[in-house]
Amino acid sequence: MALTEDDLKTFEENGIDPENPGKYETLLKDLQGNILKGHGRAHAVHLFLKFKDGKIPEVKQWIQDFATTYVTSAKMQSDEAVRYRTEKIPGSVFANFFLSRKGYEQLGFKPSKIPADQPFRYGMKNDTVRNLLADPPVEAWDRGFQEDIHALVLMADDDVVDLLQKVNKMSQQLLQVAEIVQREDGFVLRNECNQVIEHFGFVDGVSQPLFLKRDIVAARIQNVDFSKWDPRAPLSIILVKDRNGKTEDSYGSYLVYRKLEQNVEQFLKDEQHLAEQLGIDKELAGALIMGRFRDGTPVTLADIPAAASNNFNYNDDAEGTKCPFHAHIRKANPRGDLTRVESSVDYTESSVTERSHRIARRGISFGENDCTKKTSSGSGLLFLCFEADIENQFNFMQAAWSNTGNFVKVNVGPDPIIGQAEIPRKQQWPKKWGEAETVEGFDFPLWVHMKGGEYFFAPSMSCLTTMAQATQ
Questions:
Q1: Residues 145 and 98 both lie in one domain
Q2: What is the average per-residue pLDDT within 453-468?
Q3: What is each CA distance from 19 to 14, 28, 74, 300, in whole angstroms?
Q4: In angstroms, rounded to a whole number, what is the distance separating the alpha carbons of residues 223 and 309?
Q5: Over the chain, what is the mean pLDDT?
Q6: Helical residues (DSSP H) of 175-319, grouped into ranges
Q7: Which residues are paired to 44 by β-bridges?
Q8: Which of 6, 220, 305, 455 is the most buried if burial means most Cβ atoms within 10 Å?
């Protein structure tokens, strides 16, 4: 029996268990991996493709062969994880395949068979989309991202040598049907405590929507309960029906891809400048910018590093005297601010609606892989996130929350980390942590620069593995 709309909107109390999937068995077999849970590999290669004209039958056959040989389903991802936990047998090279709107068109899909999300159909280069997100002109993007991009191949593994060998082998056949217009090599960056971090040095991935039983059980163990923040999420925020799937439960997900270069040297200088201006420790200054200390401690809970946590909200910090309203993690996930802050009448929403904007982040670092080196350019985050509705999720968060200076209260300033708008970036900072008196900070420069990207869709396994026979 096919999953219903209610099945997608109502999350399981303890999440979906891939080892005992029940009614979700077909879904997990036909869904690509990395969507409900990150692939977890330490190294990744991303290849952006432009299909060659006049070779569409060959392109379709290549896609089918690649999917059959390499692409990892959600069920296969889970099975390999179980084998590794129980028998220490490493999983195979992980792979995804994604199509852009232009990719679907190039393959000859009819408009009715192309995923319908409006930003997806526009593409990230579209002036309406680009202006909404306050992105730089396309001419300023990395050269490859300026090209028409039809597809994205993602391959990942813990063994970087084996990964590169398989990518090179696969690319030999690929080059007969497509041009690789851009390549990005990513890796998981870790600190001395083996925590996953981004290039500014802050622990990354602490807060994610959770869909699977193992992740939810682990979160309960870490946080005891979900009394202040429930990370569980319904499938409806991440999955949409695949119009080209061959089963009754064929689903896919929209992928937002953005290459974000981080100016590490400038950030560290400005962090020190802010600390001196406020008369506080540099690490606290950084926490006021990010919303967490580098070890993951939420600044709304403590003014010194203590312990990473996701079980918190801002009920006891409604005035933003501990975690400023413009802090990155508060902008991106206001945890009830929209219904709690009186001056946010233009943004009044229920908790359910606020939580519907969440995304599932699957990013990985690029550039300098030594976190002790303070590089000023050429390093950053390959930002990937999955969602069911680009307009309501990623685009909304970026445009209505991160870029604006008037969310969640008037004149709080944009998100200092990912806010892209070239507007005055002065923010109000607590003169002393936990007290209401504030001072105005200096005008921050942009520390994160968008270097290119695109919107993609992750087709179902049954769509990909029958691509050569499909009549669109």
A1: yes
A2: 98
A3: 13, 10, 11, 38
A4: 7
A5: 93
A6: 213-223, 264-278, 282-290
A7: 156, 186
A8: 455
The span from the CA of 310 to the CA of 215, in Å, is 13
With H, G, I as helix, E, B as strand and everything else as coil, classify residue 121. Answer: helix
Pair (243, 285) in one structural domain = no
What is the C-alpha separation between 232 and 9, in angstroms, rounded?
12
3-state secondary structure of 261: strand
- Dist CA 333 CA 271 (whole Å): 22
Report the Cα 375 to chain-centroid distance in Å.
23
Tokens of 42: 């330490």
Residue labelled with tokens 């080196």? 373
Taking Cα atoms as reference points, which of 446, 415, 450, 142 lies closest to residue 266? 446
Place of tokens 């006891």: 316
384 is written with which tokens?
């990937």
CB 360 within 8 A of CB 35: yes
Q: How many domains does the chain have?
A: 2
Burial class of residue 146 (count of CB atoms within 10 Å of its CB; 0-12, 13-18, 19+)? middle
Grouping H, G, I as helix, E, B as strand and the rest as coil, residue 405 is coil
Do the domain assignments include residue 201? no
User: Are 277 and 251 within one domain?
Assistant: no
Percent above pLDDT 90 for the chain:
81
For residue 352, the model assigns a pLDDT of 80
Could you tell me which of 214, 207, 197 has the C-alpha nearest to residue 298? 207
Same domain, 236 and 335: no
Q: Is residue 61 packed enough to be buried (19+ CB in 10 Å), middle (13-18) or exposed (0-12)?
A: middle
Say whether pTM exceeds 0.85. Answer: yes
**Pair (347, 461) in one structural domain:** no
Q: Are residues 300 and 269 in the same domain?
A: yes
User: Average pLDDT of 96-104?
Assistant: 98
Domain that residue 429 falls in: 262-452
Q: Is there a single domain that holds both residue 315 and residue 253?
A: no
Helix locations, 70-133, DSSP H: 74-87, 101-106, 118-122, 127-133
Helix (H, G, I), strand (E, B) or coil at 5: helix
Distance CA 228, CA 179 (A): 49
Residue 209 is assigned to a structural domain of this protein: no
* Sequence-ordered strand ranges (E) for 80-204: 94-99, 151-157, 178-187
270 and 254 in a single domain? The answer is no
Q: Is residue 95 part of a domain?
A: yes
**Tens-place pLDDT, residues 35-85:** 999 999 999 999 999 999 999 999 999 999 999 999 999 999 999 999 999
